[in-house]
Amino acid sequence: MGLGVNSRSSFRMRRRQVLRGLLATSAFGATSQIWTGCSQQPEAGSGSPTAGQQVTMGFIYVGPKDDFGYNQAHHEGKEGLSKLAWVKSVEEANVPETTSVEETMRNMIEQDGAVAIFPTSFGYFDPHILKLAKDYPNVQFFHCGGLYQEGIHPKNVGSYFGYIDEAQYIAGIVAGLTSKAGKLGFIAAKPIPQVLRNINSFTLGARSANPKVTTQVIFTGDWSLPVKEAEAANSLADQGIDVLTCHVDSPKVVVETAERRKIFSSGYHASQASLAPNGYLTGAEWNWATVYSQYAEWLNAGKTLTDGGIPHLIRGGLKEAFLKLSDYGPAVSEDAKKMAEAAKAKLMDGSLVVYKGELKDNTGKVVIPAGKELKQQDVELEKMNWLVEGVIGKVS
Amino acid sequence: MLNLNHWRSKLEAVVIPVAALLFALILFGIFCFFVLLDPKNIGQSIAQVFQVYGSIYKAAFGSWFSLQNTLIRAAPLMLSALCTALPARLGLGIIGNEGAIVVGGLAAIATGLTLGNITPLVSQVAMALAALAAGGVWIGAVGALRHYRGVNETISSLLLNYIAIALLNQLVNGPMKDPSSLNKPSTYPLPEAVMLGSIPGTRVHYGLIYGLLACAIAYFLIQHTTFGFAARTAGGNVKAARIAGLPVGKLTILICALAGSCAGLAGMVEVAAVHGRANESLNANYGYSGILVAFIARHNPLAAAVVAILLGGILASGGILQRNYQLPDATILVFQGLVFLVVLYSESLYGRFRLFRDRPAPPPVAPLATAPPSLSA
């Protein structure tokens, strides 16, 4: 790419460029104007939902909807709505966490007549959703991530999230029993509470099955860094680690690299089984269809967040079918399946608590004293800033 | 002003870009046709392509509602484009826009939080000045490295982007972190009162006004001042400029600093008008889009404003293609890429058509029919 400027340009030429730009813009308008009559757009009544009518729901993703990860999981959840004939769903992918998402929400409300918006990326919440919620008090905004606070946030905002670390715990059991080296690898984006909780649950699951197992963690620094993720996966494989999992937006690269290196992998967000037919063990998957169908039913019944008909915060785990596990891959032994299923049953009936004392972090400090149990709903877990014993790595 | 001398070259300046745009639209139509193709009903597929054109126009410029969408997206691109366009007039290829935006945003939030709840105007002016200064120092340093140490300004400004982003991550994860921002580390928020609002009667923030003003000022500075003349001269031929006694070093550093301060101001607008705090969203690729705008505008500040609006319109129409036509989310990038490639390529067509060549009064009686096209622009 040549970065030099044309030094010969005279004043005449520069004025010509301005003119050119102006004309280009208007010509662009004029040429398209001809066909405006043909386009059909539902002109919006942006109003509150009325019982029994068609419900329009808008979904917004921060990345591509076929990313084998976070965004695909939400897209699959949205697709689950196709069973409900009275739901019309619209979606937009690759929407950055800037004014772009505000404009996308506005368009969905004004042009498609959406009565409920599901901006699924964590970073959409503050300030974008909060701003739009004030501008459109009759539209319901549901955010994935569980940030709603009573009295602070607008009444037409709600949030939903799942305790996906339950599924990670089970995936950990399978990984711990399948690993021959007893060494697991975890490629993570950032040392934030949600991620640390997954690393810890995965490790606790693995060590419940085989107490000698360790998990080596690598933080890449961001949600979507395919090159770094591949480097991390290769470096973990070089160290003799034989099961890889991750918490990044798209596990595609990690799972593919593991398969190429002929080691095992455990998935996250959505199923990556098709990427690693030999080495894929299982994976912690979201099952957003449950959540979105529930919201659709509420909206169809004319309920809103504002009138209290729809709860502001909904959470769930395996029991509530907010999550699922990928089908076991060919490398998973019968024993491992049996043990995983047993743990799953216990998590579902509530008899298994993942975080209970005495629990030490990987520096030897007691983080949960003996006799104390932190149930999945406990808010203390949402402030997690430690790595459990057995994890090799540092939070900062 | 308007005289009919050189009407042919004026006509050329109109016809070529319009033709380029039409050509890009046709290429895009062919692309859409194949994506939307339904082999059983080709007629309908063709009709759909025309509907797509209509929708793009409607979503970008078709109503006041959609025009505001376009302007909101254009605003940061104008300021960002100047960061590349200004030094380019001096022959420098600066691509450190992203970094200057980030440090500008950081300086603005630091100033805003330090001042706290004081008169909004004072706080806003202080934030803007801090951002201008930070961006100016950031890219000014590139100019200084270039002048005193001979460091390639393109490489150094690119690398400074990564340093700025690392600095941002370090600060929002450490010293400047609001402890309540657990899963998306951010700084403390600015007090609501000191936020830059929207232009009255619109939902477009004041960044648009800043952008338009900055483009106008930059244009005036480059085209109509001795300072601008000196910069352009140095850009044309450094040796000649030195012999003529122009302070090339000062010009380099000053132009770079001005360029950086424009991008820094864009960072301030992102913080004070959009996010209200600094976090990773500050690093939203406006810097890189700005480079694109500057190149399309051929580094003319006024043209940059126009191109930014065009690009804003293209970006604004991305949603409708996904929602109404189920086209892939990358479609709008394909369109953007086609427009830019064709417009850039059309640059090479100037002077190639005899129709547009200004000819001296009485035209030659018998021009050679087989004369090769001249390449002179």
How would you characterize the overall build of this protein?
The complex is a heterodimer of chains A (396) and B (377). Chain A has 396 residues and is an alpha/beta fold. Chain A has ten helices and 17 strands. Among the domains of chain A are: 55-162 and 288-316, Response regulator (Rossmann fold, 3-Layer(aba) Sandwich); 165-284 and 331-346, Response regulator (Rossmann fold, 3-Layer(aba) Sandwich). Chain B has 377 residues and is mainly α. Chain B is 69% helix and 0% strand. Chain B has 14 helices and no strands. Chain B has helices spanning 7-36, 42-61, 64-89, 97-115, 120-149, 153-173, 207-224, 226-236, 238-243, 248-275, 286-296, 301-316, 318-325, 331-346. In chain B, helix 2 crosses helix 3. The model of chain B has no long low-confidence stretch (mean pLDDT 89). The chains are: A alpha/beta (396), B mainly alpha (377). At the A-B interface, helix 1, strand 2 and helix 3 of A face helix 1, helix 2, helix 3, helix 6 and helix 10 of B.
